[in-house]
Amino acid sequence: MSFIFTSNASSCKSPFKANSPNRMGTPLQELADEFSRWTQGDFVKRVELFRDQFEPGHPGHGSPREFTWTFTPRFRLCRLAGARKEWILWSVKERTAWIEDYAPRRHEHLEVYWLPQPWSEPLIVVQGTCGRFYAWDGNHRIGAAFAAGLKTLPTIAGLRKSACFANNVTMQKTAFGVDFRDSKRDSLRGDKFRSGIVSGMK
């Protein structure tokens, strides 16, 4: 299963980068093949644990059944709410505090055990009511990926299917899934980034 997204509103034209099996590593291809057999019920069971990541009223809040779920090997990180620099800054602060508190050994760092093989733990993101995407699981991994210069990551993504959201964002079904035209990009800066992306979490 896959989705193709297009947008004229941003230089980042699609949340999902076109998949190319010839360029996809074997573990990633195997993961994509596995998820292609999943039903919506399977996805809901997988993401259920993270449903309370954001408080009611936050753009990223919702029940798993309010979304249509899919797996994409290369989700475009530029479609996430918040700017790259803000993600990196937040990540550095979190990492510094974590090192000071726990003095982790080298093999416990994301850059060592996860970054070389990001398919080992895909992100879980949902489409917010504003049109941008929010992480239900993987904030620290996103920060590490941005810091490393990555532009895409293997991701389980939930697309909103509510009528009120459809009024703000045009969604057209295509032979491949969904044609997505993004609403106006939100801009989150400084403390607003932390409150909008991170502090909205329980």
Descriptive account of the structure:
The structure is a single chain. The protein has 202 residues and is α+β, with helices and mostly antiparallel strands. It is built from 7 helices and 6 strands; from the N terminus they run H-H-E-H-H-E-E-H-E-H-E-E-H. The chain has one domain (26-198). The chain is 32% helix and 19% strand. The longest helix is centred in the middle third of the chain and has 19 residues, at 84-102. The chain is globular and about 40 Å long. The two termini are 32 Å apart.
What is the end-to-end distance?
32 Å
Order of helices and strands: HHEHHEEHEHEEH
Unreliable stretches (pLDDT < 50, length at least 5) are: 1-11, 18-24, 167-202
**Count of β-strands:** 6
The helix-and-strand class reads alpha+beta
Beta-strand content estimate? 15-25%
Q: Taking all residues together, what is the mean pLDDT?
A: 77
Taken from the alpha-carbon principal axes, the silhouette is: globular
Number of helices: 7
**What percentage of residues falls in helices of 4 or more residues?**
25-40%
Give the spatial strand order of the biggest sheet. Answer: 1-4-2-3
Q: What is the total domain count?
A: 1
Major β-sheet, in short?
4 strands, mixed
Please state the CA-atom Rg, rounded to the nearest Å.
16 Å
